[in-house]
Amino acid sequence: ILPHYLTPPPPPLLPKVVDEYYRREQEIKNLEKELDDKGSALDTCRQNISEAKECWLNPLKQLVEQINEKFRSMQCAGEVDLHSENEEEYDTYGICIRVKFRSSTQLHELTAHHQSGGERSVSTMLYLMALQEFNRCPF
């Protein structure tokens, strides 16, 4: 290592390099501000979506629960509930009906694989009868 008085001086800074440095520094600050603004906008959008979802999802859950209570009150071994693969994908929401016709089995989703055609027909009719109370007939 050379003593400091023998060390060559650093190359002079070119004005072009200094200008580029300040330009990039300002660009970074602008991008950071833009990121903060977009983050705030995203949080606002998420809050609005959450509030809108709450306005329709809670009443829907209550309605499905009332239908489930009516379905069970018909001496049916089954249940009706609101089903969703992913709560953020609204097109995956649906009604799930689970029934059993034998005391030795557990509840199974109403499908062609678990129930016979007659069992599916009976379950569907009981579900429609449970819905009748909540549908107003125009005549």
TrEMBL record:
<keyword id="KW-0175">Coiled coil</keyword>
<comment type="similarity">
    <text>Belongs to the SMC family. SMC5 subfamily.</text>
</comment>
<dbReference type="GO" id="GO:0005634">
    <property type="term" value="C:nucleus"/>
</dbReference>
<protein>
    <recommendedName>
        <fullName>Structural maintenance of chromosomes protein 5</fullName>
    </recommendedName>
</protein>
<dbReference type="GO" id="GO:0000724">
    <property type="term" value="P:double-strand break repair via homologous recombination"/>
</dbReference>
<dbReference type="InterPro" id="IPR027417">
    <property type="entry name" value="P-loop_NTPase"/>
</dbReference>
<dbReference type="GO" id="GO:0030915">
    <property type="term" value="C:Smc5-Smc6 complex"/>
</dbReference>
<dbReference type="GO" id="GO:0003697">
    <property type="term" value="F:single-stranded DNA binding"/>
</dbReference>
